Amino acid sequence: MTEPTELEEIISGLMLPEKIISPKYFYDERGSKLFERITRLPEYYPSETELGIMQDNMAEIVALVGEHASLIEFGSGSSSKTRMLLENLNQLAAYVPVDISRDHLLESSDKIRLEFPNLEVLPVVADFTKAFALPNPSFMPLRNTVYFPGSTIGNFAHAAAQELLNVMYQEAGENGALLIGIDLQKDPAVIERAYNDSAGITAEFNLNMLRHLNEAFGFDFDLSNYSHRAHYDEDEGRIEMRLISSCEQIVSAGDAEIFVADGEAILTEYSHKYTLDGFAEMASSAGFEIKRVWIDADTLFSVQYCVRS
Ligand code: SAH
Ligand code: AVI
């Protein structure tokens, strides 16, 4: 049997009792730039907090990663947090940024090459939820360190997040390590504010997914018929982001026609927030031993260093 095409997968998601589109479709060139703007919003605490944790603990991080490692970043985006690591790590063998947003990845990699002319930068355009081949650096690394900042793992449901940790375990290889950013459970009001910013950039980011599907797959979503909603479900420990239709409408792509009711939602993203124990359990099931956990003074976010046990 042949694998379904991306378009078939998207249409199947829109035919479910609760319509759903994978969050990977946020990230065309415009979506990647909108995400970058989100990271600078005053309400969006994760980025600044994670950077602060990295800055405060850089000496220890550098010692743990060691010399001649290769850094493999899953979902590298603009590589903005990575710059701090690249400036500090000793004699890195290579930097391998992996991302689905092709143009943005290649543009960001060119910028990194200019800033770090002695570093081998080997970008990989891939969907990291599926198997992909790692490039061979010119210098054999002593170990692979998988870097997964931003709490992007939170965008996966638990089973998929567990599977992703398994993939990272494989990609890290023998002797390998994982440096990962994990957002923590906290006052729901703080979390909801981060996904309902006053400048409306998160709303634009959410709606941009429909524009992306129109351009890349020939859908005819009318963006003016949808609005952004983000709600924190305390029982599930996650933000749920949706697009809500303001009228009854038919959306089509090629021959496919999808009926949408007035007020009906499309689920576009989960963003899970973890407890330390919750993440430790998942990491351990994937075969990782957590060596070090760094947390900010307000216990908003954590950065964790794990090795293959
Ligand atoms: N690491 C950066 C960017 C996080 S945004 C930071 O912490 O700021 C999430 C990134 O993951 C985006 O750049 C997006 O394009 C990428 N991404 C999301 N799903 C992906 C997938 N399935 N495969 C590869 N990249 C993906
Ligand atoms: C990439 N990811 C970790 C972000 C998050 O917070 O879940 C994406 C995002 N969605 C809305 N704002 C930011």
Describe the structure.
The structure is a single chain. With 309 residues, this protein is of the alpha/beta class. Helices cover 37% and strands 26% of the residues. The chain contains ten helices and 13 strands. It has a seven-stranded mixed sheet with strand order 4-3-2-5-6-13-12, with helices on both faces. A four-stranded mixed sheet has the order 1-11-8-7. The radius of gyration is 20 Å and the shape is globular. The model has no long low-confidence stretch (mean pLDDT 97). The structure holds S-adenosyl-L-homocysteine (SAH) and N,N-dimethyl-L-histidine (AVI).
Rg estimate, integer Å: 20 Å
Secondary structure tally: strands: 13
The general outline is globular
N/C terminus separation: 38 Å
Q: Please outline the major beta sheet.
A: 7 strands, mixed
Bound molecules: S-adenosyl-L-homocysteine, N,N-dimethyl-L-histidine
Strand order of the largest sheet: 4-3-2-5-6-13-12
Order of helices and strands: HEHHHEHEHEEHEHHEEEEEHEE
Low-confidence stretches: none
Give the helices and strands, then pairings.
Elements: H1 6-15, E1 19-20, H2 29-39, H3 45-56, H4 58-65, E2 69-74, H5 80-88, E3 94-99, H6 102-115, E4 124-125, E5 143-148, H7 158-172, E6 177-183, H8 188-194, H9 201-217, E7 226-233, E8 238-245, E9 249-253, E10 256-260, E11 265-272, H10 276-285, E12 288-295, E13 301-308
Parallel strand pairs: 1-11, 2-3, 2-5, 3-4, 5-6
Antiparallel strand pairs: 6-13, 7-8, 8-11, 9-10, 12-13
Helix pairs in contact: 2-9
Bound molecules: S-adenosyl-L-homocysteine and N,N-dimethyl-L-histidine (AVI).
Residues 38, 46, 150-152, 154-155, 195, 202, 205, 269, 271 line the site of N,N-dimethyl-L-histidine.
